[in-house]
From TrEMBL:
Key words of the record: Oxidoreductase, Peroxidase
PANTHER family from the UniProt entry: CARBOXYMUCONOLACTONE DECARBOXYLASE-LIKE DOMAIN-CONTAINING PROTEIN, SI:CH211-175M2.5
Record bears the keyword Oxidoreductase: yes
UniProt cross-references to Gene3D superfamilies, sorted A to Z: AhpD-like
Domain Carboxymuconolactone decarboxylase-like intervals: 52-131
Span of the signal peptide: none
Organism: Janibacter limosus
A single MF term (Gene Ontology): peroxiredoxin activity
Name of the molecule in the record: Alkylhydroperoxidase
């Protein structure tokens, strides 16, 4: 059964001629690396300078060498996106979690209900904190960091986890507000 084509955003999606040179380069690199341009790159590029600023920070947190592994950052992304019911991010980062973890079952379970996935103590501590910070940020206290410490995360890793949680809460809201549709390619990735 075929998927009905619908716009990838509630707003106008710019053409390549409508975006700054930096965005054009990113689109070109994406096409080269993935074989497609992620719809989030196309939809958010309507405001090119804002998109480029978001991308620099997002790329630094999620795609560069950091204190957490790629699989751990993607786990956080999928937990937060699942809780927020952000279709775009749950699907796209679920694909990345499948790829980095090598475990499609775990990745699919995390996207729906992370408590049903077989997670290590370290992963579970990050997922629990991601849920708390996503659902009840006003209730967070210093003691809420202890389970991550007990699971072996150091302060650099905890700070990075907090920043990734914050980034995905913001990105989920933008993606959901604009009705962003995930690329079809994500559904088959790393299966």
């Amino acid at each position: 059964m075929g998927q009905q084509q619908r716009p990838i955003s509630f707003l106008r999606v710019p053409d390549v001629d409508d975006v700054p040179e930096g965005v054009q380069r990113l689109w070109s690199k994406s096409k080269e690396a993935f074989g497609f341009i992620p719809n989030v790159f196309r939809a958010q590029a309507l405001n090119g300078a804002q998109f480029e600023a978001w991308w620099k920070y997002f790329n630094l947190l999620v795609n560069k060498e950091g204190h957490l592994s790629n699989a751990e950052r993607e786990l956080i992304a999928v937990v937060v996106s699942g809780i927020n019911q952000c279709t775009y991010c749950a699907v796209s980062h679920g694909a990345a979690l499948r790829e980095y973890s090598g475990d499609p079952v775990m990745a699919d379970l995390v996207a729906v209900n992370w408590r049903q996935a077989e997670l290590s103590d370290r992963q579970r501590a990050m997922a629990e904190y991601a849920e708390l910070l996503t659902t009840a940020p006003g209730s967070v206290e210093a003691a809420d960091l202890e389970p991550m410490r007990e699971a072996g995360l150091d302060e650099h890793e905890i700070l990075e986890a907090v920043q990734v949680i914050g980034m995905f809460n913001m990105t989920n809201r933008v993606s959901s507000a604009l009705g962003m549709v995930p690329n079809h390619e994500y559904h088959a990735q790393a299966r």
